[in-house]
C-alpha cells in the first residue's frame, strides 16, 4: 500500500494514511479508457454495492457528506421555521447543512466525557413545538444508541437523520433513521478523495434526492445518450452534487476491503486501550471496549491541567501526528456570534481535553507502542 510506504519513508506516524494501491490505479485507468467520466454505470454499481453492504435496497452517491446531509434535510422537508437538534461535538458541516435549508440548529450537550454522544435527556429538554428533526453523529465511529433515538423521535414525531461519516459498514448503521449520510473524504475509513452516500428507507425520498443532486432534472446524460430519452424537464430546484465515475471506481475497490479495514482499526484501538491502561492510566479512552464501532478515530482525554498544545508539540517533534476532534461548533466565531449564550458544559469539558492519536490500517502494533511510550513521556514531562 502506498500509505504504508510513505509512512515508513518519512519515519513519522501520520494521523491517517489513505490505503491506495495498484487496484485503485487500474480502476481509474479503466474509467479514463471508457471515455465516460461522470454519472454512468460505475456510479450506479457503486451505489448498488454500498446498499448491499449496508443491508438496504438502494443508495444515492453524491460529491460529499455535506451534500448528503443537505439533500437529506431538503428531501425530508426540513426548512424555515423548523428547529433541528444537533450535537456541537462534530465537524461543522453537520450544523452548516441545517442552515443551508433555512432551519434553526438547536445545540445539544453530550451524555458525558466517557460517552460523547448527543444526549437524549438534554435533547428532550430542548424540544419545542417547532422541533422537527434530530441529527445524531456516530462520533469516532462509535455507534449512537439508535434504538433509543428511534423511539424518542417516534414518540415526538421527529425526523431522525444519521451523520454516519465516521461509521460505514458497522452494525445496523443506516437502518434506524429516515436518512443516513456517509463520507468518503481522504481521512475516512474508505476514501474516494471527496464523495458521499445517502441511505434512506423511503424510496420516494431517495428518488427526490436523485433529482436534486443533478439540478432537479428528470433524466441524466447517460439515459439520453442511450436514446431512452431525448430531452428532460426540471421539476424542482436542484444542485450540482453528482459523483463522477472516477471516484465511484475508487469507491468500488475500497468498499471491498472496508470491513477488513474496520476490523484492523478495532484491533489497533484495543491495543491502544491496553497499553494506555497499563502505562498511562490517567489518560482516559472514551467509550467502553465492547462498544460497537468502525473505529474511525482514536480519541483520548488528557488529565486536567495538562497543556494539550505542549503535548502535541512534543509528539510532533518525535514524528507523531495528532489532532483535535473537534473544537465545539457553538464556540466558533460565526456560531457564537449568531447564537450567543449557548452553554454545553460536558461538550466543552470533553473538547478541552480531547487528543486524537494516529489510527489507520497501515499501523503496526509496534507503532502503537511507540505512540503510547512517547505520549507517556510527554505527559510526565509537562
The assigned structural class equals alpha/beta
For the report, how would you describe the main beta sheet? 7 strands, mixed
Q: Describe the strand arrangement of the main beta sheet, using strand numbers.
A: 1-9-8-7-6-2-3
CATH superfamily caption of the largest domain: Type I PLP-dependent aspartate aminotransferase-like (Major domain)
Distance between the termini: 37 Å
CATH class of the largest domain: Alpha Beta
- CATH structural architecture of the largest domain: 3-Layer(aba) Sandwich
Radius of gyration: 21 Å
Topology-level CATH name of the largest domain? Aspartate Aminotransferase, domain 2
How many structural domains can be distinguished in the coordinates? 2
Fraction of residues in H or I helices: 40-55%
Number of strands: 11
Provide the succession of SSEs: HHHEHEHEEEHEHEEEHHHHEHHHEH
Report mean pLDDT, rounded to a whole number.
95
User: Number of helical runs?
Assistant: 15
Shape: globular
Low-confidence stretches: 1-10
Structure description:
This protein folds into two domains: 22-255, Aspartate Aminotransferase, domain 2 (3-Layer(aba) Sandwich); 258-381, Aspartate Aminotransferase, domain 1. The protein has helices at residues 2-9, 22-34, 41-53, 65-75, 93-100, 120-125, 146-156, 203-213, 221-225, 245-255, 258-279, 308-317, 333-338, 345-353, 365-381; strands at residues 60-62, 83-87, 104-108, 110-112, 115-118, 131-137, 159-163, 179-183, 196-199, 298-301, 354-357. Helix 2 (22-34) packs antiparallel against helix 10, helix 3 packs parallel to helix 10 and helix 4 (65-75) packs across helix 8 (203-213). The chain has a seven-stranded mixed beta sheet with strand order 1-9-8-7-6-2-3, sandwiched between helices. It has a two-stranded antiparallel sheet with strand order 4-5. The protein is α/β, with parallel strands linked by helices and 382 residues long. The protein is globular. The protein starts with a helix and ends with a helix.
